[in-house]
């Protein structure tokens, strides 16, 4: 089943907690701390796959959860959890469903994107020794995994899109121009999914897409308008297939204007792309009537080519026009990808915000992660957390804002009483 939209909850695995352990060995009376680290939680990685054509299986899954890692055991490090690779079709756009922020455009085959990074393992107590702390009796908890409710939208990648009313002959034409073999029949709406085909012509090759028939009101979502129009966004050249001899007796020029209006209402950018008019079904037009039909389009500054998808007449001229238009067309903007360096900088950001009812709220992934990885029932671990927050600058910022002893300080879902140990 073809499906071009899915909402999926992704949750990566939590890191394993570090161990509190001390070296035990005969004749070694003062063995030091040797608690090992916890393992790394499983990440969820999206991989774009050219052979995949639908998001159907992801819509069925609804939630994908990676495993958590093992905890450190004595002086033995916890085992890392396995990552999960999720294959998506090339052309899938990932958006954070809760914020609306775009995350990644999986625009090329083989792209990999870590949508949820597994939590890192907590450090064992062997990492916390110092000149004044010879036997630390605490370790770090594993970092929590990440959660994203993502909206996946498939926008097919093609160079040329065939658009037009239902039953204009687009499926017949793509089967003539490429190796694609869509279902073809003599009733409207035989095409309910976009079809892709590779065209090889004059030592060149490009991808052509047969877009399902649009109808009046498609730009407002009538029928399957938005689902169909979404796939046109990636195409650099549009070929508007016009039925020159409609069985319902409608006017070809009015039919052309109807679809052009829907394209423009949906996206001015798409409507402004290079266009070719393919006047189809030339083989059944009564003798002497074609020139009269052609005159209806003379006011348009658009290349017009008469063809017959059924017999192949005129298709070579159409392919030449497609190649010429593709060479002249500007490339679409490259997808924006958040690099690891930018992602790391975003994760390091934090701030202190005074709250209206009194108290303060500390925001930022880095600080929230510090708290979540602290064993808050261990007094020694809590004191160590306070010193870390002081080194980062959080305590100084609270002092600047006028925080006093006992004021409430919220970090994530936890609330603390401010203590100034200076």
Question: What would your notes on this structure say?
Answer:
With 422 residues, the protein is of the alpha/beta class. The protein has three domains: 5-154, GTP1/OBG domain (Spo0b-associated Gtp-binding Protein, Chain: A, Distorted Sandwich); 160-328, P-loop containing nucleotide triphosphate hydrolases (Rossmann fold, 3-Layer(aba) Sandwich), CATH 3.40.50.300; 348-417, GTP-binding protein OBG, C-terminal domain (GMP Synthetase, Chain A, domain 3, 2-Layer Sandwich). The protein is built from eleven helices and 18 strands. The chain has a six-stranded mixed β-sheet with strand order 10-11-9-12-13-14, with helices on both faces. It is elongated. It starts with a strand and ends in a 5-residue tail after the last strand. 38% of the residues are buried. Mean pLDDT is 83; it is low at 221-226.
């Amino acid at each position: 089943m073809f499906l071009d939209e899915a909402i999926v909850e992704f949750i990566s695995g939590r890191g394993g907690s570090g161990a509190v352990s001390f070296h035990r060995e005969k004749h070694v009376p003062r063995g030091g701390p040797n608690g090992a680290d916890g393992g790394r939680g499983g990440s969820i990685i999206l991989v774009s796959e050219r052979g995949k054509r639908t998001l159907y299986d992801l819509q069925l899954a609804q939630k994908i959860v990676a495993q958590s890692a093992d905890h450190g055991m004595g002086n033995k490090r916890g085992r890392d959890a396995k990552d999960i690779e999720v294959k998506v079709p090339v052309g899938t756009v990932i958006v954070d469903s809760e914020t609306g922020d775009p995350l990644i455009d999986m625009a090329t085959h083989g792209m990999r994107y870590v949508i949820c990074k597994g939590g890192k393992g907590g450090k064992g107590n062997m990492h916390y020794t110092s000149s004044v702390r010879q036997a630390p009796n605490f370790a770090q908890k594993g970092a929590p995994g990440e959660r994203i409710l993502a909206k996946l939208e498939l926008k097919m990648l093609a160079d040329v899109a065939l658009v037009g009313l239902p039953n204009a002959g687009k499926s017949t034409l793509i089967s003539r121009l490429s190796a694609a073999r869509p279902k073809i029949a003599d009733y409207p709406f035989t095409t309910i999914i976009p079809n892709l085909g590779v065209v090889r012509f004059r030592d060149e090759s490009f991808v052509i897409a047969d877009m399902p028939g649009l109808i009046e009101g498609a730009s407002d979502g009538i029928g399957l308008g938005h689902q169909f129009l979404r796939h046109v966004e990636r195409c650099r050249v549009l070929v508007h297939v016009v039925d020159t001899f409609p069985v319902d007796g409608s006017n070809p020029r009015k039919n052309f204007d109807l679809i052009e209006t829907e394209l423009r209402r949906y996206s001015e950018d798409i409507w402004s792309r290079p266009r070719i008019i393919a006047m189809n079904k030339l083989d059944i037009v009564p003798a002497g009537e074609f020139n009269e039909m052609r005159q209806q389009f003379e006011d348009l500054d658009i290349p017009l080519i008469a063809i017959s998808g059924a017999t192949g007449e005129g298709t070579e001229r159409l392919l030449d026009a497609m190649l010429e238009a593709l060479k002249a067309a500007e490339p679409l903007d490259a997808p924006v990808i958040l690099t690891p360096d930018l992602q790391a900088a975003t994760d390091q950001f934090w701030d202190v915000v005074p709250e209206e009812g009194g108290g303060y709220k500390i925001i930022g992934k880095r600080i929230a992660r510090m708290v979540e990885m602290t064993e808050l029932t261990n007094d020694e671990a809590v004191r160590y957390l306070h010193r870390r927050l002081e080194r980062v600058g959080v305590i100084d910022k609270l002092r600047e804002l006028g925080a006093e002893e006992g004021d409430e300080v919220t970090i994530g879902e936890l609330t603390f009483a401010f203590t100034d140990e200076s």
